[in-house]
Design brief:
The protein is an alpha/beta fold. It has helices at 10-23, 60-63, 72-84, 95-107, 121-136, 153-158, 192-210, 236-247, 299-304, 320-335, 338-360, 399-410, 432-450, and strands spanning 39-43, 46-49, 54-57, 114-118, 140-144, 174-177, 215-221, 250-254, 278-281, 293-297, 364-370, 373-381, 386-387, 413-414, 416-418, 421-424.
Length: 456
């Protein structure tokens, strides 16, 4: 898809910005310190502002526009559904809702054949944990420190990153543990094999000391997203599966960010030949065109609620417009071989290209990822692996990453930046030329990051 040529309309842009600043309360932000970009339009892998500046979106929105912006077949499906049946209550059987559930269930691993629809990923996590607790009769849930599971009450307590701190009640029944991360190993491991063994031993110790009979679920992102795209070492997820089976714990995998083609498979867990008991999804299920998420449920857990009502629901569960977008998105992904394209993108363009950048830029400590799901760990010193900015840095302490991000935007690239990392997470169907354009912009911006290293 050739993106539209943006034209400048600064007067309209100023009006949009003024209305935003007067009335919109933004998430995760100090309201008086932000200056949101006024967006005029988007198409494919690009968006543009009212000043005529076009950006290649290497963040995919918030890692959800897996098929890019404004795909005509998905837009048409939403329009057609709006004309046919714009909305209907969730207690009824609706054709497009049933079809979306069928298409999702066909692609989930194992027997995860029942789909509970939500409005997004956080609600999916909330309901998955509720199901696990009711199924087991237990209350505790174990989750990793390097994780993000959403901003609702249970989901934010499950989250490991600092966004949890302000809302952590310490009474939600959540216990955090260290997952594997060989580059910054909490276990002083020498390699991935040792990291896997020690991470599983640590998790088993945590289970033992918390009391196996008190633990309802272990929840993990199959490949952690916002926390750093740390692909788990071979055998780790299988080891967690075995621990869950041994102790009667429900295994929940969060595929909200990593699912629907992002890693070059329909779901990231497909790389590891493991089947969870519950799988949460959202984002890429319909490329974010209409809010939709859900829980894919195993036969055993679904049977718990055959005669016992499930005490949960949402007014817009399985909303027809959202489901129509999901059906169209999945069909587009099949027709256009988007999953295969994401795999090729990672193997042939992004992976090699990012590693080549790492060879030339002392600010790059590690490159990791799969498909259209990559992270660059930026450091002050490659030998010591000191991060380019401190953990959870703000203000002046975070200036080096702010300078890097500004350089990306100056070069027409919209980055995904978190702490000391930049993530390369474009649309899964981005072209080779567009990917190389993004790599060139990253190359220029990394020269700015290099200025803050000990090698400068």
């Amino acid at each position: 898809m050739t993106p539209l040529t943006p034209h400048a309309d600064p007067r309209t842009g100023a009006a949009v910005k003024a209305a935003d600043r007067a009335h919109v309360f933004h998430s995760w932000s100090a309201q008086g310190l932000i200056d949101p970009l006024a967006v005029a339009g988007a198409e494919g892998a690009y968006f543009w502002d009212y000043d005529g500046n076009r950006y290649l979106d290497f963040a995919s929105g918030l890692v959800y526009t897996n098929i890019g912006y404004q795909h005509p077949k998905v837009v048409a499906a939403i329009q057609e559904q709006a004309g046919k049946l714009a909305t209907f209550a969730p207690a009824f059987a609706v054709d497009v809702r049933s079809e979306a559930a069928r298409l999702i269930a066909e692609r989930t691993p194992g027997d995860l054949d029942k789909i509970f629809f939500t409005n997004g990923g956080a609600e999916a996590v909330e309901n998955a944990i509720r199901m696990a607790r009711l199924h087991t009769g237990r209350t505790k849930v174990l989750s990793a420190y390097r994780s993000y599971h959403g901003a609702t009450s249970t989901a934010i307590n499950l989250t490991g990153d600092p966004r949890r701190w302000a809302s952590d009640t310490a009474s939600a029944g959540v216990v955090h543990f260290w997952g594997p991360f060989a580059y910054r190993s909490p276990f002083y491991s020498a390699d991935e094999t040792e990291e896997c063994e020690r991470a599983l031993a640590h998790l088993e110790d945590t289970i033992a000391f918390e009391g196996p009979g008190t633990i309802a679920a272990i929840i993990l992102e199959s490949i952690p997203g916002t926390a750093g795209i740390m692909v788990p070492p071979p055998g780790y997820l299988a080891g967690v599966r075995e621990l869950c089976d041994r102790y009667g714990i429900v295994f929940v995998l969060d595929e909200v960010m990593a699912g629907f083609g992002r890693t070059g498979e329909w779901f990231a867990v497909d790389h590891f030949d493991v089947v969870p008991d519950l799988l949460t999804f959202a984002k890429g299920v319909n490329s974010g065109y209409v809010p939709l998420g859900g829980v894919a449920i195993s036969a055993e857990i679904a049977a718990t609620f055959d005669k016992r009502p499930y005490p949960g629901g949402l007014t817009y569960s399985g909303h027809p417009l959202a489901c129509a977008a999901a059906v169209a998105t999945i069909e587009v992904m099949e027709e256009e071989k988007v999953v295969e394209q994401a795999a090729r993108l990672g193997e042939r363009i992004l992976g090699p290209g990012l590693r080549e950048l790492a060879e030339r830029h002392p600010s790059v400590g590690e490159v990791r990822g799969l498909g259209a799901f990559w992270a660059l760990e930026l450091v002050r010193d490659r030998e010591t692996r000191e991060p380019l900015v401190p953990y959870n840095a703000t203000g002046e302490a975070g200036a080096p990453m702010a300078a890097f991000a500004a350089a990306c935007k100056k070069n027409g690239l919209w980055p995904f930046v978190n702490m000391n990392r930049t993530h390369a997470v474009p649309a899964c169907n981005i072209t080779e030329a567009e990917a190389k354009e993004g790599l060139a912009a990253l190359d220029a911006a990394l020269s700015v990051a290099d200025e803050h290293t000990t090698a400068a």
